[in-house]
Specification:
With about 400 residues, this protein is an alpha/beta fold. It folds into two domains: about 40-300, Rossmann fold, CATH 3.40.50.1460; about 305-395, no CATH class. Helices cover about 40% and strands about 20% of the residues. It has a six-stranded mixed sheet with strand order 2-1-3-7-12-16, with helices on both faces. The chain has a three-stranded antiparallel sheet with strand order 4-5-6. A hairpin with a 5-residue loop joins strand 4 and strand 5. The longest helix has 19 residues, at about 320-340.
Length: about 400
């Protein structure tokens, strides 16, 4: 072997050793960044190639998904989307695999799906996401079976996973598509149950394949609805309203936890359906006792605890009348109680809290004395009906 070739091989050997860690180069390895990251995959499908087989278009699955994606992005989530013709099996699976490669144990993963969920009763009663390109006669080819979805979720190493399923948007409970297409069960009719969610079997699948670390929120056990005046499926509308409402933060810690989100969404959904004389029962599966307290989103606006701190600051540093402080504290307390019960706050509480939020958002741009004067003048104009203050004694 020539000297030149030996030198080249030696150089390659050093390079290989450095890559493999066999030689210490003197360069310190950078410590791993342990900051938790929040990843989301948001899917919404209005149109389907399976329309030729009798599957109707949806009106609001895409708006549902777009607004969910925007809300999560505004909160700092890394969001991937698959909307309408982008929502193929290939694209969805690719994003799930990408999550599995990127996510770490300390991260949080959320998957949102708005579209048709179908059940093939000729092939073991498997439930599928109907993708944009899926054929009803061959669901297993381009659809995504929920049990397979659990396998993809299991491969994602994050300890906290949230799956939100708004399967149901159209008014039909089930339809029968006749034909000679094949499914896993062979030839014959394929019966699609879009609104019935197989909760018991799905929960068994979750337990068998994941065990813990997963929250599942589903639109309905039986039948779900959408209304043009809402511009959304009624479940996602209730969920979005909750995620945007600072009052949903029942404990005032500045975070919306899984428990707070579930509680408020269910109550809003019950109110909306009762007003329309219908029934829609959402689904919740929580695998892992610590997940109920998991904070998914930051409160949009100051937390109640921050407003209380503002009041104390204005009292002790700017001379705010204690009667005004008491009236505001009562309003914050009543707001908090109403939120915990899923009720709407009173007009009085809303007036006071909105004024406090406005002052809080001014930050350090105004001195405390000026803020106190603004608060008193505003409340004197409103004269909110509360027994905690005698406005005649406070207001000029």
């Amino acid at each position: 072997m020539s000297r030149g070739r030996l030198s080249a091989l030696a150089r390659w050997g050093v390079a290989i050793a450095l890559v493999g860690g066999g030689v210490t180069s003197g360069v310190r390895a950078q410590p791993e960044d342990l900051t938790p990251v929040r990843y989301a995959l948001v899917i919404g499908i209005n149109t389907y190639l399976a329309e030729l087989e009798g599957v109707p278009e949806l009106d609001f699955a895409v708006p549902d998904a777009r607004q969910m994606a925007e809300l999560l992005e505004d909160q700092g989530w890394e969001v991937a989307t698959a909307i309408d013709d982008e929502a193929t099996r290939r694209r969805i699976v690719r994003e799930l695999v990408r999550m599995a490669r990127r996510a770490r144990q300390q991260d949080t993963v959320l998957i949102y799906f708005a579209g048709h969920g179908v059940q093939d009763l000729t092939a073991g009663e498997h439930t599928y996401w109907l993708t944009h390109t899926a054929s009803i006669a061959e669901l297993a080819v381009d659809g995504i079976r929920l049990s397979h979805l659990m396998e993809y979720l299991r491969d994602i190493p994050a300890d906290r996973k949230v799956l939100i399923l708004d399967h149901c948007h159209s008014g039909d409970v089930e339809s029968v598509v006749s034909g000679t297409g094949t499914s896993r069960a062979g030839e014959g009719d394929v019966r699609l149950t879009r609104h019935a969610f197989p909760e018991a079997s799905f929960e068994r699948t979750v337990e068998e394949q994941i065990g813990s670390g997963l929250v599942v929120l589903g639109a309905a056990r039986a039948e779900a609805y959408e209304f043009p005046e809402l511009g959304h499926g009624i479940f996602t509308y209730s969920l979005l309203q909750t995620l945007r409402d600072p009052a949903a933060d029942a404990n005032g810690d500045g975070k919306l936890s899984v428990s707070e989100i579930i509680g408020k969404t269910k109550i809003l959904l019950a109110q909306l359906t009762a007003d329309r004389q219908i029934v829609q029962s959402p689904i919740e599966i929580v695998r892992g006792t610590n997940l109920l307290s998991l904070g998914l989103l930051d409160v949009q606006g100051p937390a109640l605890a921050e407003l209380r701190s503002l009041l104390l600051e204005l009292e002790f540093q700017a001379g705010l009348d204690p009667k005004v402080r008491n009236a505001c504290f009562v309003a914050l307390h009543d707001w908090e109680q109403a939120s915990a019960l899923g009720a709407e706050p009173s007009a009085t509480d809303r007036q006071i809290v909105e004024e406090l939020q406005t002052l809080f958002e001014l930050g350090a741009s105004l001195p405390g004395e000026v803020k106190a004067e603004i608060l008193v003048s505003k409340l004197c104009l409103l004269r909110p009906e509360t027994t905690a203050a005698n406005w005649g004694e406070i207001c000029p």
